[in-house]
Amino acid sequence: MFAGKTTRLIERVREAEASGRRTVVVKSAVDTRYAVDHVVTHDGVRVLCVPLSRLGDLRAALGEAEYAATQVVAVDEAQFIGDLREAVVQATEADGKTLFVAGLSGDFRRDNFGQISQLLALADNVEKLSGRCTFCEQQGRRSPSHFTLRIAASTQQELVGGAEAYAPVCREHYVQLSRVREHGAPTGDTTEAEEEPAQQAAA
Record-annotated residues binding substrate (predicted)? Predict the structure, then answer.
C-alpha cells in the first residue's frame, strides 16, 4: 500500500483518453473510504468510476451500446474483485478491450490476495511499485516499502483502510514488527521470502 497504485492507474487512464480512446474506470464496491462512485488517491485526486463487486457485471452497468464503445477499462483495488481472472479474459480476448488492473499482490501476511497473482501469466506487462518504509523514514533513512504491515487489531484478510490500519514497510521492519506483534519480542533474524509489492498488471 501507499505505493502510488491508484495514481499510476489514473495516469494510464489519462494517457488513453488523451489518445482518443474511450475509457471507463471501475473499482471494487467494497472500497468506500473516500467516495462511493470515485476512485480517489491518498492525496485527494478523484476520478469518476463504476463501483462493482464483479467485473463481469460491467456490461450490464454500462448498457450494451456504451460497453461496446468502451475501448479501455481501468480497474482499481482489483484484489477485491471476485471474478477477476475470468472477467479479464472475457474483456480482453473476447470483447477486445484493453485493461489496466491495479491492486495488491499480497495481503498483510504476505499471502495471495484475491486473484491478482492469476493475472501474471495473462498480462502483456506487469509494473511493480513500492513506496517508502514508514519506520525507516522515522529513523532518517530512505528504504523502499515492499510489504504492508497491519497496525489495526483485526486479523481478517479484507479490511479496507488507510494509514490508520496499515503502514508501508521494508523487509527488516516487516519481520521485526510482525514478530513483536505475534510473539511479544523482537528478533534480528531475517528470512528469505517472496516480496509482495503493490502491483499493477496491464492485460
Answer: 166
Q: Which domain holds residue 176?
A: 132-183
User: Alpha-carbon distance 26 to 28, whole Å?
Assistant: 7
Mean pLDDT by 10 residues, the chain (203 residues): 85 97 96 88 90 97 98 96 97 98 86 91 94 91 87 60 73 85 49 39 51
* 34 annotated binding-site participant: no
User: Of the residues 77, 137, 158, 192, which is catalytic?
Assistant: 77
In order of 152, 180, 192, the CA distances from 131 in angstroms are: 20, 23, 20
- Within a domain: 190: no
Active-site residue flag, 77: yes
Q: Are residues 78 and 158 in the same domain?
A: no
Q: Give the global pTM.
A: 0.79
**Residue linked to cell 480512446:** 21
Domain assignment present for residue 89? The answer is yes
